[in-house]
Amino acid sequence: MANIENNLVNATSPYLLQHAKNPVHWEEWSPEILDRAKKENKPLLISIGYAACHWCHVMAHESFEDEQVAELMNKHFICIKIDREERPDIDHIYMEAAQMLTGRGGWPLNAFALPDGRPFYAATYFPKDNWKKVLANVAKAYDNSYDQLLETAEKLTEGIKNGQEFSPVESDENFKVSNYRDFLLSWQKSVDLENGGFKGAPKFPMSNSWQFLLQYYQNTQEHFAAEALLKTLDEMTFGGIYDQIGGGFSRYAVDDKWFAPHFEKMLYDNALLVSLYANAYKTFPKPHYKKVISETIDFITRELKDPEAGFYSALDADSEGEEGKYYVWSHKELSELLSEKELSIAENYFNCTKRGNWESSNNILFTNQSPRDYAKANNLDPEAFEKEIESLKQTLFNQRQHRVRPSLDDKIITSWNAMMITGLVEAFKALRKDDYLELAESATDFLLRTRLIDDNQLLRTYKNQKSITGFLEDYAFTIEALINLYQVTFKIDYLNKAKHLAEICFKDFKTESSPMFQFASKTSEKLISKTYEINDNVIPASNSSLAKSLFLLGKFFDEDKYLETSKRMLNQVEAKLFKSGPYLANWQILYGWLTFPFYEVAIMGKKAQDWSLELQKEYHSNYVFLGGQSENLSLLENKLPKDPSETIIYVCENKTCQQPTSEIEKAKKQLK
C-alpha cells in the first residue's frame, strides 16, 4: 500500500491519527466539510469510534486500509472520521439514528447522511464484503432514488428531534418514601444474584447503579439491596474483568460471569469503580475491597497519569494486533517463570490450566474467592498465603512489563478527569491516604488552570493545545468533583467555583422551554438536533449529575433557584423510575435525598477538617459536610466557637440544628 496521508494527519485525537495513513480521504467534522459536500452533491459517510475500541481496529484493518474499499468510499462519499470521546454531541445523534433503524448501537458506528448531516442509514461493524455492498448500494440509491433517501432522512431527523422533546409534567414535587421503596421492584427482575451485575451478557460494571443500592440499603435496611450489591462487587473483584496482576478494570466482560474481559481499560470506568468500592468499603469493610481501591489507583497513577497533572483516557484492548495479548498467559510461560509452589497457586487459586482457560491455549487469571477465604477453606495461614500471592503477582507483573504494551489514548478529557477526582476523594475518605487527596487537588488545579477559559467557558479536551468546547457532562462532573473536594478540605474556593460553573450551565445550556439542560452549549455549532442526556448508563447522565449537584448547592448556599430546578428535573423523570431503575439510578439517589431526612453537618473550629474526615469515614448518603474556621456560608453564621482551641459539631436538618456537641461520638449518634 502506498505511504499516503489524508487530512487527519493534522488531528490531535489519537483515534483520528490511527487513520491518518488510510487510503480513505478522511476529513475531520467541520461546517466547511459539510459545505463542500453540498457543493459536490455527495452524501456524507460518518464513521465514529474511539482509540481503545477493538472492533474499530478490526474494521479499519479489513476495510479502511484496503485500496479497493477506499476507492469506493472516496469516489462516492465525503468521508468523515469522528472520535466519539471528543464529539459525544455528534455521536449522540447518529447513535440515535442507528438505534431507531436497527434496534442496536455500538462502535464503530457508520452513518450515511445527506450533505446537510441528516442521516438516512446507520449501523455498526460491517465485514469487508458486506461493507463494499453497502457502499455500492448507498451510492446507487443516492444517484437513482434520492427522493426515497430524502424522505427517510426527514422522518429519521424528525424522530431524533421528537425523542428530545419533553411532555409537560404536573410539578407537584410530592416525592414519597413509599415510591422510593417501590423502585426496587424493577431491580429485582434484572439483577443476577448468582453471578452479580445484571442478567445476561455482556456484563458492564454500571457503577452508578450499585451506588443507588448502597443508598437504598442504608435508608431501608432491605436485605436484597445489600445481597445484590455485595455479590456484584465480589464477583467483579474475582473475575477476569479485574486485572489480577496490575489492578484496574476492563470496560466489560463478554460473558455472564465477569470472566473474559473486553480488555480495553477506560479512565471513566476505573474512576467510577473507585468511588463505588470506596463507599461500599465504609459500610462493608472487606479487605479485598481495600486492595481493589489501592491497586486501581496505583494502575491509574502508573499508566494513565500525565506528568504535569490530570489523567489520560484509555488503554487499548489490543497489542501486537491481538486482543488481550498483554494480559494473558500460557501454562508453559507460567511454568518457566514460577516456582513449583507458585505454579500451584496459579493453577488452583487463579484457575490456570495446561490447555488454557481462554482462546489459543491462553489463561485469563481469575479467582472464585478472596485470598483469606481461600486460605481458610484450604487450612492455610491467611497472612502467609496473601504474601505468597503478592510475590507471585509481582513476578508476573515484572515479566509483563517486558511485553509490547497496549497503545495509550493520551487525550485528557475534562469530565472523565472530574470523575477521577471524585473517585480519589471517596478513596481518601475511606482509606485516609493523603496521596489520594493530593492527586485530586493537583488534578483539579490543572483542570481549572488549563480548561476554564476567561472564567466563563470550560473546555472538553487537552492535547497539543487544541481544544473542543465543553459539553454539559464536562460542567456537571466538574461541579460534582468541586463539591466533593470542598467537603473534605473546607476550602470555600472549591464551592464558589462549583456555583460559578452552575451559573454558566444556566446561561449556556438551559432554555425556559425545557426542564432539562441540553447536552451542547447554545453557543456551540448547530447540529441537526439538540440532544438531552437523561438516562444513566455506564456513565451517569449529565442531567442527573447536575440535578444532584444543584440540590447540594441549594443546601450549601441556601439558594431556592438551585433546589427548585433540581426538583423540576427529577419530577420530569419520576414516572420512569419505577420501571427503568438501573438506567435512572442517579435520579433515584436524588429521590432518596428528597424523601428521607437530609442533614447539614456543620463543623466549626480548630479541628473542623479532622473531625469531618473522622465522621466521613462512615458511609453517609443523605448528608453534606461544611465548616472550617470562617463563617463563609449562611449556614455557618454564628457557629464559630469563641474559644479558638475549641471545635463544635452541629447536625442540622433544613437549617434546624440539634444540640451542638464537642464530642465526635455524640455527633455520630445524631447522624444515625
Observed structural traits:
single chain; 672 residues; alpha+beta; 5-stranded mixed β-sheet; 4-stranded mixed β-sheet; 26 helices; 49% helix
Would you give an account of this structure?
This protein has 672 residues and is an alpha+beta fold. The chain is built from 26 helices and 22 strands. It has a 5-stranded mixed β-sheet, sandwiched between helices. α12 (267-283) runs antiparallel to α13, α18 runs antiparallel to α19 and α20 (472-489) packs antiparallel against α21. Residues 6-160 form the Spermatogenesis-associated protein 20-like TRX domain. It holds the Pfam family Thioredox_DsbH. This is Thioredoxin domain-containing protein.
